[in-house]
Design a protein that fits this description.
alpha/beta, N-(1-d-carboxylethyl)-l-norvaline Dehydrogenase, domain 2, 2 domains, eight-stranded mixed sheet, four-stranded mixed sheet, 15 helices, globular
């Protein structure tokens, strides 16, 4: 299968490298700085599968007709990415890998809905610099039709290819899983606000209490909006409901221990990685999704709203916050017991 990957960040590069190693006909497109580095030095991957380099076809835009397109840009860049490549990809299957739930809706404005496959990546990668990244941890790749009604035939054919690089799970309720994945990503805003790795940030139980408060508020919002969360492999809904029902200090301690052990290498999260690259983050599609849902359901989400604003301030002012500032503003939004 001819595979075109649009987006040369942490996930796009990781998928390109592993698919190429499995003998797939894959090409990568991305920003000029990444294209130049990868052409010159190849893709360098380190982490849980060792350290190696991969030579791969790369350009600023796709230059052939792929059978499968993997959209690996951030959600806010999907529109431009599709428009730049539309003449080559309009007949292809399109696989989205973005966090949040809006990627498929954006893609459907330009592409045939029946060819859009939604996915959730449960593995983690960190972008170090153009052409260099760390594969932090393993996990499955969940796929499902973005818009219900199609038979699983194409999904099963696709899974045979993708399963060579990550274990694939096919689901009939990708939307419910995607909303739960937002919970898994929602605490990435805290390392982005403080400018530190996840291991550093969540070693602090006071900051971890904010994480529990994020989940508690978000759970109230999705319940008010009538959204059914669906368990992910290795991340059941009970992870959220159990921790948010415990005393905050106990829940924060459990959360802290879990997050500290996610990766041996420093893990920064997608939001901070974007900021470190001088680009706007996907915060509006993660914590901002809870704020949007709260507005629709006519309830409030003051903590998530505050954290979205703080991330945007970091993006604008190029200055990270101190822990005391974070605790003060979060404490004004909700009571942190």
């Amino acid at each position: 299968m001819r595979i075109g990957i649009i987006g040369s960040g942490a996930i796009g590069c990781l998928l390109a490298a592993y698919l190429k190693l499995e003998g797939q006909d894959v090409s990568l497109s991305g920003h000029p700085d990444s294209v130049e580095a990868i052409k010159r030095d190849g893709l360098e991957i380190s982490g849980v599968r060792g350290t190696f380099k991969v030579e791969i076809k790369v350009a600023e835009h796709l230059n052939y007709f792929p059978e499968l397109v993997i959209l690996a840009t951030k959600t806010q860049d999907i529109k431009e990415a599709i428009k730049d490549n539309l003449g080559l990809i309009h007949n292809a299957l399109v696989l989205t890998v973005q966090n949040g739930v809006q990627a498929d809706n954006i893609a459907a404005k330009f592409l045939d809905k029946e060819k859009i496959i939604s996915s959730i990546v449960m593995f983690g990668s960190t972008y170090l610099e153009p052409g260099r990244l760390v594969h932090n941890f393993e996990g499955p790749w969940i796929i499902g039709w973005a818009y219900p009604g199609k038979t699983p035939g194409d999904l099963e054919n696709l899974s045979r290819i993708l399963n060579k690089v990550f274990p694939v799970v096919i689901t009939e309720n990708i939307t419910g899983m995607k909303f739960l994945k937002i919970f898994a990503n929602a605490n990435n805003c805290l390392p982005a606000i403080l400018g530190k790795s996840m291991q550093e940030v969540f070693s602090d139980n006071e900051v971890s209490r904010i994480s529990i408060a994020i989940w508690k508020e978000a759970l109230e919002v999705v319940n008010a909006a009538g959204i059914e969360l669906v368990s992910l492999p290795n991340f059941p809904v009970e992870n959220i409901t159990r921790l948010t029902s415990l005393p905050p200090a106990q829940a924060a301690g459990i959360f802290s221990q879990t997050m500290r052990n996610l990766s041996k290498e420093p893990l920064y999260g997608s939001i901070l990685q974007s900021i470190m690259r001088g680009r706007n983050s996907e915060i509006d599609y993660i914590n901002g999704e809870f704020v949007r849902l709260a507005d629709q359901a006519k309830v409030s989400a003051p903590l998530n709203d505050t954290l979205v604003k703080m991330v945007h301030e970091v993006e604008k002012n190029k200055r990270f916050y101190e822990k005391a500032e974070l605790l003060e503003r979060a404490g004004k939004a909700v009571e942190l017991k």
